[in-house]
Amino acid sequence: MDPLLAEVWGVRLWYYGLAWALGFSAVFLWMMLRRSYARLSSRQVWDLSLIFSLSCLVAGRAFQILVYEWEIFRGRHSEIFAFWKGGMAYEGVIVGALAGVVLFCIIHRKSFLLLADELVIPFAFLLALVRLGGHLNGEVYGYVTTAWWAVKFPHVEGFRHPVALYEVFKYFILMLILLVAGRRGTQGQGRLLGHFILWCGIFDLAIDIFQAPGALFRGVGTGCFLNALVALIGLLLIAGSARRGSRKTTELSTLRFAPASLIATIPSRLNAGTWFRILLFLAILLFCLTIPGGWSREWLYDLALL
Predict the structure, then answer these.
(1) Domain total of the chain
(2) How far apart are CA 32 and CA 11, in angstroms?
(3) How far apart are CA 306 and CA 285, in angstroms?
(4) Within a domain: residue 3?
(5) What is the tens place of the pLDDT at every residue in 225-234?
(6) Has residue 291 been placed in a domain?
(7) Are 228 and 184 contacting, i.e. CB atoms less than 8 angstroms apart?
(8) Residue 160 forms beta bridges with which residues?
(9) In angstroms, what CA-CA distances link 167 with 126, 141, 152, 155, 210?
(10) Is the pTM of this model over 0.70?
(11) Among 74-83, 104-113, 138-147, 294-303, whose mean pLDDT is lowest?
């Protein structure tokens, strides 16, 4: 499948970028619909959407350059923020999401655990879309296999495990787990965040079987150690949430609108500050469409993949 979505006035738009735009939109819509449960105002949801999206993009780009592609960009600092040339690290996005939520909570004096519990479900949806976009680019693949569902990727030999699709399924299953856990557990105590981290670690342990391991320690891939540590952190968060409170909740049993309308009461009553937030968020979504992939074009050229 051609990863190019369209070309408008000489600007190329990509399916990978569309995944980011749809993902950020989903995060915004979820939080706007459930802002009363998260104890946020409409304006605070706009602020959260801006901070969250920008932190994910900046951290994902920075991690890709500093960790994976520094040899390419070391002497070309002017191109570091050339998102339209590709380059977004998955690990950096996770760090950016965490940093964005922490920053928002500091600015608006909100509970981190309460907000994190609300965000993990739409964030899982965002990551599923991004992994799907990466699959369309042929960026994430595993070992050669004879399985009937194997995929022929354009830049490598043989049919291989579609690891990116495995991760897409992982996040959709994780969303179902979080919805069930949210209906039966405590609200705003970090329980959903714990489940998110726990199951990410467990699922990644299974998915890593189909990927070539990185560095080894006593014959075990370091990714296994990392995923086991992630799962342990999730367990500790769940255990800690049980001690912080045991109030049952049915707030995830139905999704309904908060008392106010989706954006505001009447468009004519929006002040300049709100309009600025709306336009800036729309600009970020449009900008996302220009991001071609998680791997930069320069890196692919250097690897003789293009």
Answers:
(1) 1
(2) 31
(3) 27
(4) no
(5) 788 888 899 9
(6) yes
(7) no
(8) 144, 151
(9) 12, 11, 18, 20, 12
(10) yes
(11) 294-303
